[in-house]
Amino acid sequence: MNLNATLFAQMVVFFILWWVVAKFVWPPLVKALDERATKVADGLAAAERGKADLESAKKRAEQALSEARNEGTQRIADAEKRAQQSAEEIKANAQAEAARIIAQAKAEAEQQVSRARDALRTEVATLAVKGAEQILRREVDAKVHASLLDQLKAEL
């Protein structure tokens, strides 16, 4: 065999193989590589969007946490204010109740003093009658002299 014919035959086979590869194998391979490249690019873009979303979510979470803290602080302040108001109301009610009890006790004491004075007047009148009876050495009728005894009570 001739070297030139072998070289020529190999060139013809190479070009036929190149044409077959270029026509049937290369386009699906390039298409698969392009699809893979777009998937990778989409994945990177999604990762970037995910990072941005994560940062946005972190900011929203920090803002929500800050709002929750502020709301909690406000609720605590409101609760303290309500507790203070309740304490003041209870204190005012207790003072009013104490004043009512003191007034009632004073009224009761005055009634007892009045009853004691009346009892004392009656007793003094009785003692005066007995004393007068002893002085006069005769018995004085308390029923007959009731008006005189009432006048004596009034003077005492």
Walk me through what this model shows.
- This is ATP synthase subunit b.
- Keywords: ATP synthesis, Cell membrane, CF(0), Coiled coil, Hydrogen ion transport, Ion transport, Membrane, Transmembrane, Transmembrane helix, Transport.
- With 156 residues, the chain is mostly helical.
- The chain has one domain (39-155).
- The chain is built from 2 helices and no strands.
- The chain has helices at 3-136, 146-155.
- Helix 1 crosses helix 2 (146-155).
- The longest helix is centred in the middle third of the chain and has 134 residues, at 3-136.
- It starts with a helix and ends with a helix.
- The mean pLDDT is 87.
In short:
This is ATP synthase subunit b. The chain has 156 residues and is mostly helical.
Count of separate DSSP helical elements: 2
- For the CA atoms, what is the radius of gyration? 60 Å
Category from helices, strands and their pairing: mainly alpha
- Strand fraction equals under 5%
Distance between the termini: 171 Å
What is the β-strand count? 0
Key traits:
mainly alpha, 156 residues, ATP synthase subunit b, ion transport
Topology:
Elements: H1 3-136, H2 146-155
